[in-house]
Write a structure and sequence with these properties.
homodimer; alpha/beta; Urease, subunit C, domain 1; TIM Barrel; 2 domains; four-stranded parallel sheet; 17 helices; globular
Amino acid sequence: MKKLVLVFLFLVAATALPAQSKTHVDLIVTGGTVVTMDASRHIYDNGAVAMRGDTIVAVGARETIESRYDAARTIDAHGEIVMPGLINGHAHAAMSLFRGLADDLSLNDWLHKYIFLAEARNVTPDFVKWGTRLGVLEMLRGGITTYADMYYFEDEVARATKAAGMRGVLGETIIDFPAPDNKSVPQMLAYTAKYIQHWQRDPLITPAIAPHSIYTCSTKTLQETAALARKYHAPILIHVAEAPFEGEQSRAKYGLSPVAYLESIGFLGPDVTAAHCVWVDAGDMKLLASRDVGCVHNPSSNMKLASGASPVVNLIAAGVPVGLGTDGAASNNDLDMFEEMDLAAKLQKLVRMDPRALPAEQVVAMATINGARALHMEKQIGSLEAGKKADVILIRTDAPHATPMYNVYSQLVYALQASDVDTVIVGGKIVMQHRQMLTLDEPRILAKARDYAKKIQASLAAPAK
Amino acid sequence: MKKLVLVFLFLVAATALPAQSKTHVDLIVTGGTVVTMDASRHIYDNGAVAMRGDTIVAVGARETIESRYDAARTIDAHGEIVMPGLINGHAHAAMSLFRGLADDLSLNDWLHKYIFLAEARNVTPDFVKWGTRLGVLEMLRGGITTYADMYYFEDEVARATKAAGMRGVLGETIIDFPAPDNKSVPQMLAYTAKYIQHWQRDPLITPAIAPHSIYTCSTKTLQETAALARKYHAPILIHVAEAPFEGEQSRAKYGLSPVAYLESIGFLGPDVTAAHCVWVDAGDMKLLASRDVGCVHNPSSNMKLASGASPVVNLIAAGVPVGLGTDGAASNNDLDMFEEMDLAAKLQKLVRMDPRALPAEQVVAMATINGARALHMEKQIGSLEAGKKADVILIRTDAPHATPMYNVYSQLVYALQASDVDTVIVGGKIVMQHRQMLTLDEPRILAKARDYAKKIQASLAAPAK
């Protein structure tokens, strides 16, 4: 009898005080189709994600999560896709102010008559601040939670990115000619050393160093840049093998392909992310894989500038981690990872004349977990798993262009659009909810961008000094 | 003195009674950037379009139009692009119910294990009604005001299209195997004759006849089809030279390319619109131009199915009118002309390795006036000009991804999206205003599409009878 009473009391306590047995978290997203992008590619049809601080605590079936956790705040994701935030592996955010300034031109005219001239006459800290805000605004609206950037005045880029609540791997550009911010390589390296030290412990910003390319940086510059990066354990971002001329110059000058040349000077390593990798052969791919270099494919930019089609299927087969990027708005003309996913899948099918090439699931991986690998950040971001950063996006699936839905990966790659992204969470903080930006003053950014456009157009009309 | 008094009185009358001197119209769209796509490519920065009934009465500068016309209804287009409705030159609207059902497969598996099977087991008049409604809903939302369709039960397609207030060139499919609607070619031809006669005087619907292709129709079928079309002066829609196997079969069987074979049997003429035209040589292009055949380029579908890249720049140079199409959602997977414009421009640049190939203005022409030419409807649609049908769309330009704007054609092709379309007018009637559909019950269509998806999936799981 005594035993029975005890059991009875225990049961009363257990049912009357269920809240005491739940673990408290800050935020739960619940009720959506949770696409984890974990190693087993688990999808919870009615799933939930629990977050505390900037970290994911648990991912699972809705009833499991709700029975184990209670949250200060809950977001209902019913009818939505819940997935890791997209990773834009290569961008020049501030160049959004040049969107559509110079299209359909030869590479030479585009670069020398427009882009370099417009940069020389306009790029100031204020330009970079507003241009980055514009780029970050567009990216967050399209579900991008992390981006890699290469530009000038990168300290401004970092400040604008952090203020928007976005994650960034932000590389100050090193180049062998006077740049808008620094006039010589020693000045650039000094700026970068200071910049890296300032940002290195930031939870959102990873300061990086970005030697522009092998055709704009000498061997000495590349080696000094790599040495600086390795001194501070900062990542290196660089354009590699983008257009045919780069390979021709490299072979003429060094007798080696761009990748083999970079290997010969000790540049390649597990801290390097190489954008483009269009003109790489089997030997280059083997080198990239053996040195654990990440590659970032930019299909829009490569097509629009007629750079070529990167052998993405072969790179992946060789073991190279391949992410996906938008490049800058001057060569795209938007920063839209849904467009890049669609294009990446279709481009490989076309160039290989095989509709089975690069299926949708692989493309979603490129935009998430493999994008994280390409940036050497796969332990922090790229999938929804306990312990990773709470970078989570919610995507509506009720638009006519996305109805019906048979396969979630197909829908993400071939049908859904950036405008379907509903809510964006970075490091546990909601930065966009139901398409309302919470961290950025959108009307002011757009007004400033229009003002800058007038100034930029006038600057190009002015005669050379 | 008398003369002066008369002049004075005239001036008083002219300023005091301006309203009496104005011509009455039904609708004026005013204040936007009016991109006419007329022969001189005139753009009015602050323009207006006046419409009466289903026809455009005048296009011009805002103050000119407002001083000459008054309207029962005015739409303020300030800050928007005002342009002719987009023309989707090739689609299978009802196949939207198969969106994403079968992706990343070999052509053989895709067609035989999924699409043909799903069609045989599901395509009924009700399927076509709801599938067409879904497709038309997506297309109107994305600024498409005219589309060309090839499917079965085309009478249902016509009814759904007309009810939505959309313009269509709608072709009943003729094919040498039992179709969901008619089991033999004589039955198909009899159905089509009746269908054409029923719809031929409709203001929105142009009934057409659609022999599927040279590899699914015998010479006899093609000739009988052409004869029927010519008896009723109805347009002919056909797939031509889409994939390599078609040319191989044609050369083996007839000793001729697909285009030369069609010429040899008297099929080609100024009433034919040929979808795809991927595998056409210089001789084929000359033939197509000399017979005034219109071609429709479908870049998404051609890439996704690995069909190849149509030589669009060469076709245009040969004098062939080239439009742009989405193909069906089973091979795309959306019906989005903004995506097709972006892709068309980028694909030509890539395959020609020339960033100057197919500039933005030419691509906008493909989606409007040249699309009309490809459908032999350039006298009625494709540009904003007095006397043409009042098919007008308004596009917002204030999204972050479309800010700033330097060039309106660049923005349309490379940055703006279907979701930026704000208001759609077809034949003078507003079918979508501020993204609210006025002619379609969107929630009901989406619910029906989801129901059908379950049915379709179950049908594929069932064993063969």
